[in-house]
Specification:
By secondary structure, the protein is of the alpha/beta class. The chain contains 14 helices and 22 strands. The chain has two domains: about 170 residues, Urease, subunit C, domain 1; about 280 residues, Metal-dependent hydrolases (TIM Barrel). The strands form seven sheets. It has a five-stranded mixed beta sheet, with no helix packed on it. A four-stranded antiparallel beta sheet has the order 9-19-20-21. It is globular and about 60 Å long.
């Protein structure tokens, strides 16, 4: 049953999504499972406790209660009309946004209002490139992929909770072993464990000669075998198909740009995925592999670190999404940080400098943009800041991590936006994220499908509890 929650805040970003909805492939509402009861007297209790733990009652009616929380800040931004000093009230009922209403230009003094000063309410963020059982921050992901099953899954539970608490309410997993990602998606959906709602790719597909893609466990070389792998993934419940058309990023340019799948292999996978109402992404750096991805109709190019100007122009014209994942290379605990000082690290730094220059061009090119961490769990704010430093505007990046992602996932208007009827996913960050996306690192509150899953320093006061 429904329990509205009202937020009043001074900054709101409302992403836009105008394309028709793609075939839905995973549940976007509140998780199924248990729901903690709400006591009639709420005074002195935390917001998380008042709204219940992650999960809803299945098969039984729950008491309909209104809990009104007021939050005040300095600015308003709705994603279309610009900024003003008018506060905004967001009413949440069940797992959906019920209404968004602007108040007067000056909010009256109210002892029951939590004044956050500079704060921005964003739609829940979407990490469009991550993995379950690996974390680049701990290094040696090849060894991590060999961990025993229980360790692999428990590491994933921990990482996904970290993602959720960083404001990521939805994430796309880009290949895992033994369909653990499918099982994890279902466990989160059913309220067994907390985490972002997941779109999953099942077993990543790569050739036997591919020099990268340690997360890929379906190793095949010819189109017929690729088609069988796609069928197996779809039968297991995969939401996306993921192929690796490039290998490793360090080494000679010739080696790095070597294609491991061509047009025939990519086309059969893309055709099969699209016929099933799914989409496909490819681990691809550039060169002939990028030529083949664009020609085959691959929906998302992951990384794209060495794309040419022609590739960027063709992707922009065709509407091929780019998810650049630069931060995994530059972060102190990322790829570069795990290399010892010496010639190999110096060479890697030169390659990363090349990659950053391509990213600068991509951010100016009009290519449809997505944002992903590549398993730098909890690090989406760092990725946003990295892309901002490379020339991305805050508005462009916020759309990439909200409404653009929703469109790529086939969930335009459902997630990634703040509008009546949309899923109530919210990330409240300190500061003005419309001026500096680094504000996303200071999370004050995370709501997923109408349930508060993270509170920062803010301690809201309950101002109203009423039956409705």
């Amino acid at each position: 049953m429904a329990r509205p929650v009202v937020f009043v805040c001074g900054i709101v970003f409302q992403g836009s999504a105008t394309s028709p909805r793609h075939t839905g492939f995973f549940q976007v509402g509140a998780p199924r499972g248990r729901m903690d009861g709400i006591k009639e007297s709420c005074e002195g209790q935390s917001l998380t406790r008042l709204l219940g733990s992650n999960g809803h009652a299945a098969g039984r009616a729950a008491e309909r209660v209104m809990v009104a929380i007021k939050i005040r800040a300095q600015r308003v931004w709705d994603g279309e009309s610009g900024s003003s000093d008018q506060p905004v009230t967001i009413a949440v009922e069940g797992d959906r946004i019920r209404s968004i209403a602007r108040e007067g230009r000056s909010a009256p003094a109210d002892n029951d209002v939590i004044d956050l000063g500079d704060a921005t309410i964003l739609p829940g963020l979407v990490d469009m490139h991550t993995h379950l059982g690996i974390n680049h921050q701990t290094g040696d992901i090849k060894a991590q992929m060999q961990n025993p099953p229980v360790r692999h899954i428990l590491d994933g539970v921990s990482s996904l909770r970290l993602d959720l608490e960083s404001g990521v309410t939805t994430a796309k997993l880009n290949g895992d072993r033994e369909f653990y990602d499918v099982q994890m998606r279902n466990a989160i959906r059913d309220g067994v464990v907390p985490g972002p709602r997941l779109a999953v790719s099942g077993r990543g597909i790569k050739s036997s000669g591919c020099t990268g893609g340690v997360v890929a466990t379906c190793i095949v070389d010819d189109p017929d075998a690729i088609e069988r792998c796609v069928d197996q993934n779809l039968a297991a419940g995969a939401d996306w198909i993921k192929l690796f058309s490039s290998g490793k990023v360090f080494g000679t340019l010739t080696d790095v740009l070597q294609p491991f799948y061509g047009f025939a292999e990519l086309a059969v996978a893309a055709s099969k995925a699209h016929a099933a109402g799914k989409r496909m992404s490819s681990h691809c750096f550039g060169g002939e592999a990028a030529d083949a991805c664009i020609r085959a109709g691959v929906d998302v190019i992951d990384h794209g670190w060495l794309l040419s100007d022609w590739h960027l122009e063709a992707m922009a014209k065709q509407g091929t999404w780019l998810c650049p994942t630069v931060g995994v290379l530059t972060h102190p605990e990322g790829v570069l940080g795990h290399l010892s000082h010496g010639p190999a690290r110096d060479e890697a730094q030169r390659r990363i400098d090349e990659i950053c220059e391509v990213a600068r061009k991509a951010l100016r090119s009009g290519v449809p943009l997505l944002v992903g961490t590549d398993a730098m769990h909890g690090g989406l704010a760092y990725e946003l800041k990295t892309l901002q430093d490379l020339g991305g505007t805050p508005t462009t990046l916020l759309k990439a991590v909200t409404s653009n992602a929703a469109q790529a996932l086939g969930l335009a208007g459902e997630i990634g936006v703040l509008r009546p009827g949309a899923v109530a996913d919210l990330a409240v960050v300190r500061g003005n994220a419309l001026q500096d996306v680094a504000c996303a690192a200071e999370i004050l509150l995370v709501m997923q499908a109408g349930r508060v899953v993270k509170e920062g320093e803010m301690q809201p006061q309950i101002t109203q509890v009423a039956q409705i």
